[in-house]
Amino acid sequence: MASSVLRDCVQQEGMGGYVTVGLSNMINHLADISTVWNTPYPDASTYITVMITSGMTHNPGDTDPTTSRQMAAFLGEMATSQPAGPLHDHYRNQQAHLLQSSLSMDRGDIIDWWVLEPPRQDTMGYTCDASFGSPLLLDCSQLAYSQLGYPSDRIDILPREPKLLSSNTCTVQILSEITLTLTWAQIKAALDALIEICLDDPTQAPKGGTAFWGHQEPYNIGYRRRKRSTTVNNVT
User: Fold this and answer.
1) In the chain, what is the straight-line distance between the N-terminal and C-terminal CA atoms, in Å?
2) Looking at the predicted structure, is the pLDDT value of residue 109 above 50?
3) What is the model's pTM?
């Protein structure tokens, strides 16, 4: 494990890195409908992380957003394979928790992915709304792949000046009531979640949706669908 980090990160990229093995053990545990957050995890859920660093003191296997997003992606795939019901809802709830943890990590918080944080102004929420039309999964996936910036780069969203991204039937609108600075990693995490929850869930018809921060939804990330006429369904 250490040799792969040394080769792929230190020698090829000139930076430290880490590798995690056995993450499927934890994913299987989180998929168990009886699993409760912040309770002791069984030995069977153990995974191993090896890192090479010049001074990091926390375990990236627990505190890096990549780990959270990878587990969230697997649980999302599990949800799409399940019919509507308690198990499907459990997978989605576990996925949402992990995505929220990854967003906190992207912001710079050093937290373990399993920590339950109290509600805060930048808590992420999601809604799906048929009034936003039915963007095609392929178009939104292409947009997420081709039109987002480098993950760590930041963009400023100004009041009444929404940022628009578009690919055929899929349009993403990012807007804020206050001046807001986001990283592209945060935007991609929200977009990926919307794609999985609103478009790629076989238990419901595909529809547009909104991701929002804060209890009063001051900033939204959502879809809108271009109609055959010149009018457009706006995300509000």
Assistant:
1) 48
2) yes
3) 0.52
